[in-house]
Amino acid sequence: MFGSASKAFFHLLAQSRILKKLATRFAMRSPKSFVHRFVPGETVEDAIGAARALEALGLTETFDHLGESVSTLPEAVAATTDYLDVVRAIMESGVERNISLKLTQLGLDVDRASAVDHLRKILELAEPAGFFVRIDMESSRYTAVTIDIFETLWQQGYRQIGVVLQSDLYRSEEDLRRINTLGARIRLVKGAYREPKSVAYQKKADVDAAYARMMKTLITDGHYPAIATHDPVMIDLARRWASERGVTPDRFEFQMLYGIRRDLQGMLVEAGYRVRVYIPFGRDWFPYFMRRLGEHPANVAFVLRGIVGEYR
Ligand SMILES: Cc1cc2nc3c(=O)[nH]c(=O)nc-3n(C[C@H](O)[C@H](O)[C@H](O)COP(=O)(O)OP(=O)(O)OC[C@H]3O[C@@H](n4cnc5c(N)ncnc54)[C@H](O)[C@@H]3O)c2cc1C
Rounded to 5 degrees, what are φ and ψ at 254? Predict the structure, then answer.
């Protein structure tokens, strides 16, 4: 995890409309663009192409049609229609049926009931077709409402859905205990957002310690949990913890982001573990991309080298 000051800086840049406009117009234009390292393209065909390449290497995937913080109802309706098209395209392609989405993309900031209706619409198409639908977790402003919506849908009988918990939030260990008793699938992450100390650990060591505790609980008592991290220390710990307790590698999966630690992804597959890669795609790639830069200083150098290379 990069320092919290840099996280804050890149989150600020991510909100810049001018930068976003420029980046969206120019940065993806070449097939060799530096953005492609983290986002395979703007169309669902680009994403499916990336998925096929991953599947050929023994990996699986989840698709994220990028978009968040939609501020009007028509935009939320359009994002939902787009997602329904993505689901249909994945069905036709024959690649694995697994998607991730954000509630603010479906209109949570506009009107909660509409966002839930939109999610239900997607579930009505996706569930019977064998999709798994993961609700991504956004900043702490949305934690309670996201979990509440997830639990309501679970109570209504939707079973092919899962949620994400962030180890940097104090509340997450309690959330884990409650959600785990439902029998639901949890993706465990460290947390990508800059959070205040009133709600979240500020030191990396504390976030990591909470991650380790939650990961151990999930591996022994979870329901096909997803250990989503690129951290070799956490991955080693998960492997050791599982093997010492006789938890076989088919009872959980590792998850990583597209383009990040591809070496580790391949090594885990070779060692017999399941690895799912999160494939983000779409025109609205800028905020996602900026979060990845804020996490890891080497990515900034990678991007700068890419820019110099492309515009030389
Ligand atoms: C599949 C998946 C889904 C996710 N979904 C969510 C979500 O719904 N909500 C949410 O808040 N967060 C989500 N995240 C992001 C997560 O919260 C972290 O911000 C991110 O994974 C970085 O933390 P880390 O666990 O990899 O460990 P860190 O301690 O941050 O990093 C450990 C090592 O991983 C490598 N690494 C980490 N990040 C990068 C990077 N950007 N580029 C290159 N190398 C890197 C480096 O080698 C680094 O030393 C998701 C992550 C994954 C893998």
Answer: -90, 150
Phi/psi at 279 (5° precision):
-105, 105
Please tell me whether residue 8 adopts helix, strand or coil conformation.
helix
Which of residues 212 and 30 earns the better pLDDT score?
212
d(CA 76, CA 174): 31
- Ligand 1 centroid distance, CA of 190 (Å): 7
Q: With H, G, I as helix, E, B as strand and everything else as coil, classify residue 219.
A: helix
Which of 88, 15, 59 minimizes the C-alpha distance to 286? 15
- Give the C-alpha separation, 265 to 275, whole Å: 7
Query: Quick one: pLDDT band at residue 310, thresholds 50, 70, 90?
Result: very low
Those residues with Cβ within 8 angstroms of residue 146's Cβ, 6 or more apart along the chain or in another chain? 103, 135, 137, 138, 163
| Residue type at position 291 | R
d(CA 97, CA 89): 10
Place of tokens 């500020």: 202
Type of residue numbered 137: M
Q: What are phi and psi of 35, to 5 degrees?
A: -65, -30
Backbone phi, then psi, for 16, in 5-degree steps? -75, 120
**141 catalytic residue (yes or no):** no
In this structure, the residue with its CA closest to atom 5 of ligand 1 is 136
The DSSP code for 28 is: T
With tokens 């591996």, the residue in question is: 219
pLDDT higher than 60, residue 251: yes
